[in-house]
Specification:
- The chain is mostly beta strands.
- Helices cover about 0% and strands about 60% of the residues.
- It is built from no helices and 56 strands.
- A five-stranded mixed sheet has the order 8-15-14-10-12, with no helix packed on it.
- A hairpin with a 2-residue loop joins strand 5 and strand 6.
- InterPro entries: Hydin-like (IPR033305), HYDIN_VesB_CFA65-like_Ig (IPR053879), Ig-like_fold (IPR013783).
- It is found in: Cell projection, Cilium; Cytoplasm.
- Its main location: other.
- It holds the Pfam family HYDIN_VesB_CFA65-like_Ig.
Amino acid sequence: METLLLLRMDGVAESVLRADDLSFSPKGELNLKASVGSCNVEIQFSPRQRTPPFTAELQAKFAGLLHPLLTIQGCCQGVEVQLDQDHLAFGAVVQRCQARKRIVMMNTGGIDARFQWKTDNFPPELSITPAKGCICPGMEVPFEVTFAPVELINDKRYENLSCCVEGSPSPVTLTVTGSCIVASTSKEVVNFVCPVRGSHSQTLPVFNPTNQHCSIRPVVEGEQWSAASSVILEPHQNKTYKITYRPLSVTADGKKHLGSVFFSFPDGTGMLYSLQGTAEPPKAEDNIVHELPAKTHHTEMLPVHNWLSQQQRFRVLMEILKPDKPDATVSLKGLEYIEVPALARRDYKMSFFTYKEGHYNTKVTFRNEGSGDYLYYLVTFKATSPGVLSTIELVTPVRQTASATVQVENPLTTVTCLTTECKCPEISAPLLHTVPGQSKGSLSFEFQPLCAGESTALLTLHSHDLGFFHYDLLLTALPPPPEKTVHFNTCLGSSHSVLVKFTNHAHFKTEYSGKTDCPEFTVDKALPQAGSEVSIEVSFEPHQLGKVRGQLSVSSAIGGDYIFPLHGISLPPKAQGPFSIRTGHRVAIPFKNIFLQTTTFSFQVDNKCFTVKQADPILSKKTHNILISFEAPPEGFRGPWFGKLTVSSKCSEGHSRPCSWVYYLKGLPL
């Protein structure tokens, strides 16, 4: 007996599976034998898209009843990616601004998928980030779409902006619409004024019209302006934006530098400010004031800056503004050109010199002859009274001369006359000295000291045209050398006087005092000056035989010192007489004790007709009269009678040997 069966599938929703995703065979009615009848049923699951988990039942119908045969469960893992919106409307966006909107991609599938937007097909004003990546199951990826139109457009529509998703049969598409309008401009033009290469800063008000935090990048046009590259704004915040004008060239003939600064906000709105700049001629880089003595060479270092990104060559012009008349006694010197590397600095060396005191206002200009741009300095020199130009050292013995020479340069074209002044009486220089124009003159002066020692003096030359010239003099007067030796020659017991003469070099009347260092030589202590020649009498009175040396010192507080060597020769005493004595009378013969101490002398006569009276010891340098008496003998000889008086000193008196003096006597009758 056979059984008629009918197979059917039940329990699957059409929203989950399509009709051909799950199938079985054979289909239709089947005839199976009783007890042993069977057939193979093939179930096929072939989804063409992701299929969530499902449950289905295979049933058999016979005898009008449904009998469940088996339960089928299954799913299909696949990619299912979609955007939260497939249309973005930007509306009106200001030209050169940009607006941003956000969309989200969602992966509702069961496996990872890579994606990539076809940005090559995007118009220039549209961009999206990120342009590619990977999205995991259940993940959301946010995208930022930016609309930055450059040209004015009305209601532009961009369709089929596609993103390819790995494993997806069809790309994800997006449609964008928007328009571009002209930016609103500030009613007022912002004006800037400053010297060229200077700066002028102003602040511009900026308002964030959106309700989101944003960082905007202002667009500054005009190479003369600079500002911060970005501004951070809180929602609906007012802020100021500082912009600086730094011109590198002068605006002339009424022309101005033009520029602008543009602010764009996230909502597509923007604000444009127009900028105008006037670059005036440059101001002085610096106003330098320097004080220095006249006739002093001074070097001023002036820094020269190159504000360009290329090397510049400047021509240097030096001017004396005040006094305004040309003056050959003032000089400004320096190189004619200076080259400065790009964006660097070099120092320019300027030399200044003036002969006279005064204020000198100068201007030093560095000009680029190609572009005409320049910079300059104002330098004021305050020349005070000149200091000492040099120090001159003069060394000479007393009453001798030492000479020196100073040179004076006359930069003028005419002859100049110099007067000299020195308060030291020992310095002699011509009162007037002339120097021809544009030449050097030499002035010689002499130093003739009268007193030994060291001193200083100031020599000053003055010219109405060239001012003062000061020189320090270091003067050294050495002790005088000895004068010529004065010679004496006399016998012991006698004296020899010599008149010593010398020249008084003082310029006015003075007095000299003399002294010797040897007791054999004597001199008056005070000597009045008589004209330019001075005489002093020196006496030599020896107290022993032989040679005697000494020194005569003649000094004056004004006229100085004179040293005379003294050389005396003491000879043995010569016999004196005859001394005539008439009988019955006596004669006194003066005798001086020439020794330095009290001395006892003996008096002896060799003729009994003559008698001598012995004396007490004679004081040093004192004269004693020796009394000699004469009595003629009674014989009839009529005379005359002769005798000899001998005066002797004793060795015990401290003398090296005894000395004796002989006096011849002559007796006469009445």
